[in-house]
Amino acid sequence: MTKERDKSLITPETLVEIQRFSQEQREALEKEGYATYELTGQSIKSLREQGNPFWSSWHEGYPKLEALISRRSEVAINPKQLFIPGSNHRTFLEQQAMVKRFSKDISTRIPGVEAVLGEIPDYAELVFLSPAEQRLFGEKYNYNYTRTKTRIVSDVADVGDFRPVRGLRVCRWLPDIRDVNLFAAPLVVPISGTK
To answer: Does pTM top 0.85 for this prediction?
Structure first.
């Protein structure tokens, strides 16, 4: 199922062509339980300006980070298994290796796709596209976090702990930190140049 964006949220950034899955890839992903969403180049700043709540504010002091945009691509996640099992209590490098193995596995089953660890705005836009009653990184997901590939000086950013009253939380930790609530949530995307 593709989640459509509210037409009132169209900005000049959203007019750039979106990379899409082929019909065969979409059907194969849906058969495996994946939901497809369309990311449109939103930033933390643009999402907040549209009224989406963030309960962390430290990133407001980093204008380049606030302006970093999400990929312009369809992405697929498995809402029943958002995180790679056993990817918590791992370092950033260990989680990257797990995503790489996950990518190899899914691309064997579904040619022309790969799994990646996204940037902060990829996950932030996804959160606000997900259904309100089952918001990603919310209660259904035990308020857990995903590591991102966004670097802030020597730290790596994490996204999660969505609370309806507070909003989405963005944190930053050293890449060697291991935490019970910090997982890897892979995003499945079309490989550039494939349709």
So the answer is: yes
